[in-house]
Amino acid sequence: MSDNNSNLEDLLDELSAASENTEEISVVDIQDTVGHRSFAPLLAAFGLIVITPVGGIPGVPTIFGIIVILVAGQILIGHRSLWLPAVIRNRSIPAGRLKAGTERLRPIARRVDVIFRPRLTLLTRGRAPYAIALSCVLLGLMLPPLEFIPMGAAVPAMAITVFALALMANDGLMAMLGYGVCFVAVYLLVSVVPFDAVF
Q1: pTM of the model as a whole
Q2: Are 98 and 19 in contact (CB under 8 A)?
Q3: CA pair distance 11, 125, nearest whole angstrom
């Protein structure tokens, strides 16, 4: 689970650069930009995309929820490199919206990067990444139903991003924050989504 991006602003730089001089950017473009063998930065990238205005496009949170499930699921089964099916890899999103979203997040990223550092590594090393990956699978499952709630998908996407950044920085305190946001996402799901109407 090594990463090529040392912090959140680096990751935004990568996404912003990939969004230049093109109208649409595909999932495989994002994968190539972030790195095929970099599970944590990929999770962070996909979580960030849902937080940006791109996440407001109908269907995008669902697609990226599936992607998060696939990425986190491969962490759980011990894959060394990431595989995504062609039907997912070829999906694309508006590059302009992604670039605009990365620019909006940049001031926040600068502040966040200052506080990320290795600490409480018991929560990010050993078997701990598997607990985080399982949490990300559950968060990915939340994205489709919360897509229908205004800004609802942003909550599990934020948890996914925080978890991924915690792995990138070996920051157990941020992993704890990720679990906290995960509980908020669960509460939002059970309190807002009308399961009685669905079932």
Answers
A1: 0.90
A2: yes
A3: 22
Domain boundaries, the chain: 8-198
106, 9 in Cβ contact below 8 A? yes
- Give the separation between CA 41 and CA 57, rounded to whole angstroms: 23
CA 35 to chain centre: 14
Q: What distance in Å separates the CA atoms of residue 42 and residue 48, rounded to the nearest whole number? A: 10
Q: Once rounded to an integer, what is the mean pLDDT over residues 108-137?
A: 92
Is 75 in contact with 38 (CB distance < 8 Å)? Answer: no
Residue predicted with more confidence, 48 or 79:
48
SS3 25: strand
Do 133 and 180 meet the contact criterion of CB atoms below 8 Å apart?
no
User: Alpha-carbon distance 8 to 195, whole Å?
Assistant: 35
Q: What tokens were used for 87?
A: 């039907």
**If we measure between CA atoms, which residue out of 172, 146, 148, 167 comes closest to residue 39?**
167
Predicted confidence (pLDDT) per residue in 45-78, tens digit: 999 999 998 998 999 999 999 999 999 999 999 8
3-state helix, strand, coil in the chain (%, to 5): 70, 5, 25
Q: What are the C-alpha distances in Å from 79 to residues 8, 36, 136? A: 24, 11, 16
Pairwise CA distance, residues 80 & 88, whole Å: 19
| Length of the chain, in residues | 199
Q: How far apart are CA 58 and CA 188, in angstroms?
A: 19
